């Protein structure tokens, strides 16, 4: 069964058989070695490949980093968010796995169809709320009694966090997340069929001394139109795509408009720190450059041309005499 994912009921059955002595670990191993028929649970259809799961993991690792920065600034305390796991399970199993009373953001992601869920563990939700209200970030679970003001505060914070989700997803799709509902009881969620496959991204979250999980539930129907964008070939093509002629022309135009500092050096010299400390107005500094020799013109910090000084339209100017040898090597 290497590579297979057991449901909670299968795990409970195995543990029960071992604990009661009906089956030993060696018996299970021997049974697996002789087993030739693989049982497929049609209620637990695997709709995503390992390649697509890895892509979703990368996307939400970036999202976790963005959320860490966002919540740290908003809550003004230590926040650390990281991806704990990415699994595909039936929607019914996801609903059973989260607390009976929790904080669930339901939001749309146009132009994609369907809704995405973001479930925030009550400990984390109340720690966030306590920090936003000026507290120390202590946690106490009483989600069912959220006041309208508290719900509004939480909605506003998570609506602002959607900018991070939009940025994390921009590699596969341009989305515009819109919060449509804040729910506290998962039993009231009837957005898809119980047997529909969903991707659940679990984010391990630490806020001060409080720890908990943030779970993002994405139904297969939402990702179906862009499923091909999750393949490695798409990522490689997007990373190696050549610029179009219009993009190349625009880039060349922008580069030509970039400003460069030009410096005409009259000469250089070295002095001691003591001389520098006692320098006054009217002191003369002798340079190592003869006034009859041409000057060096630097582009940025790189010497490029020899020039001679003069005036043009009553302003100081220099006239280029010749390019310096080796002046193009550092371009």
Total beta-strand segments? 10
Residues in helices, as a percent range: 25-40%
Number of structural units classed as domains: 3
CATH A-level architecture of the largest domain: 3-Layer(aba) Sandwich
Q: Would you state the CATH class of the largest domain?
A: Alpha Beta
The CATH homologous superfamily of the largest domain: CheC-like
Main sheet strand line-up: 1-5-6-3-2-4
Q: Describe the main β-sheet briefly.
A: 6 strands, antiparallel
- Spans where pLDDT lies below 50 across 5 or more residues: none
Overall average pLDDT: 81
**What portion of the residues fall into strands of 2 or more residues?**
15-25%
Element-by-element helix/strand order: HHHEHEEHHEEEHHHEHEEE
CATH topology of the largest domain: Chemotaxis protein chec
- From the alpha carbons, calculate the radius of gyration and give it in angstroms: 32 Å
Helix count, per DSSP? 10
Computed structural class:
alpha+beta
Distance between the termini: 59 Å
List the helices and strands and how they pair.
Elements: H1 8-20, H2 25-34, H3 50-75, E1 79-90, H4 91-97, E2 103-108, E3 115-120, H5 122-132, H6 148-169, E4 178-183, E5 197-207, E6 210-219, H7 220-223, H8 232-240, H9 245-256, E7 262-265, H10 273-277, E8 295-299, E9 302-312, E10 315-323
Antiparallel strand pairs: 1-5, 2-3, 2-4, 3-6, 5-6, 7-8, 8-9, 9-10
Helix pairs in contact: 3-6
Organism: Ureibacillus yapensis
Domain Flagellar motor switch protein FliN-like C-terminal: 254-323
Keywords: Bacterial flagellum, Cell membrane, Cell projection, Chemotaxis, Cilium, Flagellar rotation, Flagellum, Membrane
């Amino acid at each position: 069964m290497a590579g297979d994912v057991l449901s909670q009921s299968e795990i409970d059955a195995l543990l029960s058989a071992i604990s009661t002595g009906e089956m030993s670990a060696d018996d299970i191993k021997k049974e697996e070695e002789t087993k030739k028929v693989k049982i497929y649970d049609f209620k637990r259809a695997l709709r995503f490949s390992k390649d697509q799961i890895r892509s979703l993991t990368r996307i939400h690792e970036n999202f976790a980093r963005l959320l860490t920065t966002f919540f740290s600034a908003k809550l003004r305390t230590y926040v650390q968010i990281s991806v704990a796991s990415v699994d595909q399970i039936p929607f019914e199993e996801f609903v059973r796995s989260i607390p009976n009373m929790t904080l669930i953001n339901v939001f749309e992601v146009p132009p994609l169809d369907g809704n995405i869920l973001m479930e925030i563990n009550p400990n984390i939700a109340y720690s966030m709320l306590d920090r936003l209200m000026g507290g120390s970030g202590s946690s106490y679970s009483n989600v069912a009694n959220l006041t309208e003001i508290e719900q509004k505060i939480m909605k506003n914070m998570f609506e602002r966090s959607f900018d991070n989700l939009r940025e994390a997803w921009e590699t596969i799709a341009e989305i515009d997340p819109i919060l449509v509902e804040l729910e506290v009881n998962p039993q009231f969620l009837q957005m898809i069929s119980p047997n529909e496959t969903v991707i659940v991204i679990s984010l391990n979250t630490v806020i001060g001394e409080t720890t908990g999980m943030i779970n993002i539930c994405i139904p297969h129907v939402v990702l179906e139109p862009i499923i091909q964008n999750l393949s490695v070939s798409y990522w490689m093509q997007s990373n190696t795509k050549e610029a179009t002629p219009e993009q190349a022309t625009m880039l060349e135009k922008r580069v030509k408009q970039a400003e460069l500092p030009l410096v005409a050096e009259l000469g250089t010299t070295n002095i001691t720190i003591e001389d520098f400390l006692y320098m006054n107005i009217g002191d003369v500094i002798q340079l190592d450059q003869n006034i009859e020799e041409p000057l060096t013109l630097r582009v940025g910090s790189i010497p490029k041309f020899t020039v001679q000084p003069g005036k043009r339209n009553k302003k100081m100017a220099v006239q280029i005499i010749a390019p310096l040898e080796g002046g193009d090597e550092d371009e």
